């Protein structure tokens, strides 16, 4: 692993060859074979900042193969939670599979019993799969703290509640009756820093069809009321909605409806997973859907609909208001990336799939016009602003990027981007390291936006195991590397929860 914080301007030099070995990248696709409880881990180099006090939670697929059958796409793997607890310079590691109904049944059977949304079939061919429309809630996408619960999220169904310390699964949660059984609940809540008083978790659920309905929910996120539903509204829009993420400002919830169609026939017939039946409409544009927040200046008004730029979006970085305009930063792909029924995800050709690029859309609500500018030419994913700037203008963002300045590759580096000047600072794990989503943690009492640390799980291809890397958020200088006694496959999302933290048993 290299320590190479650097300032890099956009380069016109010829693009160098990819700096990684595919076998190193693919070696992260494996089953997690053990569950650890509060295992002490020490820094292999550097020192863990003593001020870092709290827990980093990560979620992602931890089971990718059963009885010789591999998932068709890693997104079909069962959710496994990793927790790294920081206390006065000490670090303790725990990990647990979420005990979903499907995981328990398949553990017992020793084989896959459910189809996966991203194309994993049950053994036995199309006949065994046709018309089996049961959803396996795999709880693998995100993990957040709400009140005394840890919630493992999967957007097509209910969250699973876990104990925040032991990670034991308490079970499916309907959030004190807020949700109906099986109701969709996004895996991308936004924690806003207090736009209308105390901190809130703003999130949504989508009922997709020829018309799609978005349920927008706001929960208290701090104090004794944490977890209480504060705001709840529903709005319907024309067209099929594929909404993985959204963004918020003090007055708006911002959605980008991708120009995509859903043809369920191959799914019904057992030939494809449901997500493989999504197909982008060539040349068509999506729409921005802006729903007024209940405590904002436009509460009670109709949603605003504006034309979106071409391209496909999974994730947004942030949104904010500038006079009559709403500014939304999103990661755009030229097209919806999917893995066809005959492709092996471990052999995906990065040069042939679209890369994610960060773009800024300025939505002028007075005129209805939208203008878009590219913020960086570097392939990126998993971007965030400091927690205190969610929904507000932010100077800096942190994200996972490719090692090369242009071209599509696996994510091997972490970048701090100055959104005002375009200056980039990059820390790289290449050639043998592969990064996941970086989490920016502010230093307690910090006044500067970039004062804090960046925490990231890195797949170390040389060790075939995972490292926790701690960087200084301002300079991207490496502060510590912890070699974990655990091999965690390429993961999805996670969050930081500051101390204090108590479990049921400790309360
Ligand atoms: Co996501």
Short description:
The protein is mainly beta and 507 residues long. 5% of the residues lie in helices and 41% in strands. It is built from 4 helices and 36 strands.
Question: Can you describe this structure?
Answer:
- This protein is mainly beta.
- It has one domain (55-415).
- It has helices spanning 22-26, 101-109, 125-129, 265-268; strands at 6-7, 39-41, 43-46, 54-63, 65-66, 69-70, 78-87, 90-97, 142-146, 149-153, 160-162, 169-172, 190-192, 200-207, 211-220, 229-238, 247-248, 252-257, 260-262, 278-280, 287-292, 304-307, 312-322, 325-333, 357-364, 370-374, 380-384, 396-402, 411-418, 424-428, 433-435, 439-442, 452-460, 465-472, 478-483, 494-498.
- The longest helix is centred in the N-terminal third of the chain and has 9 residues, at 101-109.
Helix content: under 10%
Question: Given the C-alpha coordinates, what overall shape results?
Answer: globular
Unique ligands: cobalt (II) ion
Number of helical segments?
4
The chain-level structural class is mainly beta
Task: Give me the count of strands.
Answer: 36
Radius of gyration: 22 Å
Strand share of the residues? 35-45%
Ranges where pLDDT stays below 50 over 5 or more residues in a row are 1-12, 501-507
Distance between the termini: 41 Å
Q: How confident is the prediction overall: mean pLDDT?
A: 92
| Number of individual domains | 1
